[in-house]
Amino acid sequence: MINRDLKYFFGPMSKNVVDATIATKNKYNFRIGFIPTRRQVEYNGGYVNNWTTDRFSSYVRAKNNSVIIQRDHAGPGQGYIDDDGFDSLAEDTKYMDLIHIDPWKKCPDYTHGLAKTIECMNFCHQRNPHCYFEVGTEEAIRKFTDGDLDKLLTDLKSFLPEKVYSQIAYAVVQSGTALDLGAQKNTGVFDADRLRRMLWVCNKHNVLSKEHNGDYLTIEEMRSRFDLGLNSINIAPELGQLETNVYLGILRNLPRSLFDVLYTICYESKRWIRWANSHLNPLKEKEKVIIICGHYIFSEPAFIKLRAKMSKEFGISESELDNMIVAKIESHILTLGQLL
Fold first, then answer.
1. Domain of 314, in residue numbers
2. pLDDT of 1 above 70
3. What count of other Cβ atoms lies within 10 Å of the Cβ of residue 189?
4. 155 within domain boundaries
5. Does 104 map to a domain?
6. Which of these, 73, 179, 200, 276, could form a disulfide with 280 (CB 3.0-4.6 Å)?
7. What is the rounded CA–CA span in Å between residue 93 and residue 108?
8. What is the per-residue pLDDT across 123-182, written as a single tens digit (0 to 9) for each?
9. What percent of the chain has pLDDT above 90?
């Protein structure tokens, strides 16, 4: 059963983020979960440490067997290729405690999205009847009103077998969050009344509520959501950017040529394009390009080679560098832990 007190789900943006999160949980018994997307961790490998679904799960379980692992944004078109998502789901049911069924990127029409949600849930339940689900999606993919969410949960109850419907643990609620990775801030406009209505729907259907895109919120902003009754919130890019910022801090004390190498790796990856606003000039705002997509390239051979050179020229070992990064991420998680 999913713990109702589990407030934070963290994106495993890098191996250091995973290590820091688990280390903090081991020290302070924080209730946390991981939310790997299909691009981060996948049955055939992802950008985070080149982990496959089974290797990521084994790594986490070996360090702490009580951490909840949830697939974030499972479904068609959510990986690197435009697929139906079922090969990924088949593997997820072997290793994930919880699967976010999210067909809404490919199926924004309600009727189509509902049918695909039902198909995916039945597929997963057939393979693992103990797997829990999250339904709905974030506003950046498809906007839901409280009425839409109410209809979704009502229809799922009508069309799913009761034994499948009863495995819904979370519904995604929306209150206006939006991310600007370049500015490293949450640019959404919080709507407390909208959140209240969404939470009422979740309570009506006896499911837990989860909001996405909780990055860059202050403790006060987090507290206001939890005080209204929000159960959980997802945080992801912010943690990866903490690691990127450590590298940038080191590079400021090293020859400019090393910064230029990092920029080139990031620029040529094209990972910044998805998050860049229309005003970004990638040829001039080089540091912003790195900040936006640095965490995407940590496992690439060119960055691994650069990192080794950085640590050598900075006068520390790579293990010492990892310790610096882990300490910074742990400190941030401890700050969030004030609300646990």
1. 240-332
2. no
3. 9
4. yes
5. yes
6. 276
7. 25
8. 999 999 999 999 999 999 999 999 999 999 999 999 999 999 999 999 999 999 999 999
9. 94
Of 47, 35, 142, 140, which Cα lies nearest the Cα of 92?
A: 35
Write down the residue that tokens 């020229």 correspond to.
313
Q: Which two tokens stand for residue 324?
A: 């610096």
User: Are residues 183 and 87 part of one domain?
Assistant: yes
User: From CA 32, how far away is CA 10, in angstroms rounded?
Assistant: 7
Structural contact between residues 10 and 33, judged by C-beta atoms closer than 8 angstroms: yes
Q: Which residue has the tokens 């009502």?
A: 154
Half-sphere exposure of 105 (CA within 13 A, CB side): 16
Distance from the first to the final alpha carbon of the chain? 19
Amino acid identity of residue 335, one-letter, is: T
How many Å apart are CA 212 and CA 219, to the nearest integer? Answer: 16
Under DSSP, the state recorded for 241 is H
Half-sphere exposure of 89 (CA within 13 A, CB side): 30
Question: Structure tokens of 163?
Answer: 């034994």
Nearest CA to 49 out of 300, 264, 266 is that of 300
Task: Say which DSSP state 70 is in.
Answer: E
Pairing of strands 68-74, 232-235: unpaired
Please say if the pLDDT value at position 87 is more than 70.
yes
The C-alpha atoms of residue 204 and residue 95 are separated, in whole angstroms, by 30
Question: CB of 195 within 8 A of CB of 173?
Answer: yes
Contact of 117 with 103, CB cutoff 8 Å: yes
Is 179 within 8 Å of 217 (Cβ atoms)? no
Q: Last residue of some domain: 185, 216, 238?
A: 238
Give the pair of three-digit tokens for residue 323. Answer: 């310790």
235 membership: H or E segment, kind and range: strand 232-235
